[in-house]
């Protein structure tokens, strides 16, 4: 059994049994893949793929189990290579971060500037997308770190709270509500709202439900949201840390305590090897997370054990 054969069956499955596409992705020949797959099946004494002539038609039940384990083996081999490389060159490598717009646009820039000064030989890539897209990227092993706006339950990733954040209202300086000392849901009923895709609050009953009916549109991109506010489309509801006084001086930000905030979270693939410089970035994102604490979370054997560790973790406000 060879690693090359394991790689072939995994890639054949990934390419939906298309041998031509598999051969192209691996820079090899279709007959070569077919031969190696046959040799592996002969050695194991089981059929991994069912065939019709020269075409693969489906994966057998035992084949699915073999391919799953083969993928895990290849992942461990890749980890060993990274570990060895990190041991020889601890401050060199690559780092891919999958982040939502809010995090990629407003949180990462200043942090990455310091990180890249500290680790000039680490090539950093930021992959921006929706929370679901970012999670899938980390789960697939394409990205090393997830950074999302909300700490969500039930994720296949190891999710660790990073920081708390609040939302506020952004409006033109000449808006009728600009001089109001404080705002309630009832006061928003007369005005159209542009939100970040999140609800307002369930804590204010009918008033808040009525205010939600005034939502004109949603824009998960805060830069787009502020543009809509400038166009007079409504009052914006967004994260307060997305407010930039120098850029947004024509607008006014009003903190609103009753608006629900969230807890931004870091996500890691369970069992993945963490490079030394990744711990550094995590601590820049969440100073309360030391290397030891991250390792303890990674080593947690159950959800209950992880919850106990996180219960003692102070999550700062940003």
TrEMBL record:
Any one GO biological process: cysteine biosynthetic process
Coiled coil feature spans: none
Keywords: DNA-binding, Transcription, Transcription regulation
Top-level division of the source organism's lineage: Bacteria
GO molecular function term, any single one: transcription cis-regulatory region binding
InterPro entries from the UniProt entry: LysR_HTH_N (IPR000847), LysR_subst-bd (IPR005119), WH-like_DNA-bd_sf (IPR036388), WH_DNA-bd_sf (IPR036390)
Residues of the HTH lysR-type domain: 1-57
Family: Belongs to the LysR transcriptional regulatory family.
Protein name: CysB family transcriptional regulator
Phylogenetic placement of the source organism: Bacteria, Pseudomonadati, Pseudomonadota, Gammaproteobacteria, Aeromonadales
């Amino acid at each position: 059994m060879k690693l090359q054969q394991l790689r072939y069956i995994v890639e054949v499955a990934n390419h939906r049994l298309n041998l031509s596409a598999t051969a192209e992705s691996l820079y090899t020949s279709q007959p070569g893949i077919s031969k190696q797959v046959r040799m592996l099946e002969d050695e194991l004494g089981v059929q991994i793929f069912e065939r019709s002539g020269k075409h693969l038609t489906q994966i057998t039940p035992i084949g699915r189990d073999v391919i799953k384990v083969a993928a895990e083996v290849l992942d461990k081999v890749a980890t060993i290579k990274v570990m060895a490389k990190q041991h020889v060159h601890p401050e060199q490598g690559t780092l891919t971060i999958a982040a939502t717009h809010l995090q990629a646009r407003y949180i990462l820039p200043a942090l990455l500037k310091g990180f890249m000064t500290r680790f000039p030989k680490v090539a950093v890539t930021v992959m921006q997308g929706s929370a679901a897209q970012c999670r899938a990227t980390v789960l697939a092993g394409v990205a090393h770190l997830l950074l999302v706006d909300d700490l969500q339950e039930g994720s296949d990733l190891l999710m660790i709270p990073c920081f708390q954040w609040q939302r506020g209202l952004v409006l033109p300086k000449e808006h009728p509500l600009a001089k109001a000392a404080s705002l309630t849901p009832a006061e928003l009923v007369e005005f159209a709202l542009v939100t970040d895709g999140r609800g307002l609050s369930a804590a204010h009953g009918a008033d808040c439900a009525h205010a939600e009916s005034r939502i004109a549109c949603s824009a998960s991109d805060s830069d787009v949201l502020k543009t809509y506010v400038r166009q007079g489309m409504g009052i914006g509801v967004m994260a307060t840390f997305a407010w930039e006084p120098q850029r947004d001086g024509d607008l006014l930000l009003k903190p609103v305590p009753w608006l629900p905030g969230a807890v931004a979270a870091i996500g890691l693939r369970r069992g993945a090897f963490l490079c030394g410089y990744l711990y550094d970035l995590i601590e820049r994102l969440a100073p309360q997370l030391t290397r030891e604490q991250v390792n303890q979370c990674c080593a947690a054997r159950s959800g209950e054990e992880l919850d106990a560790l996180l219960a003692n973790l102070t999550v700062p406000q940003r």
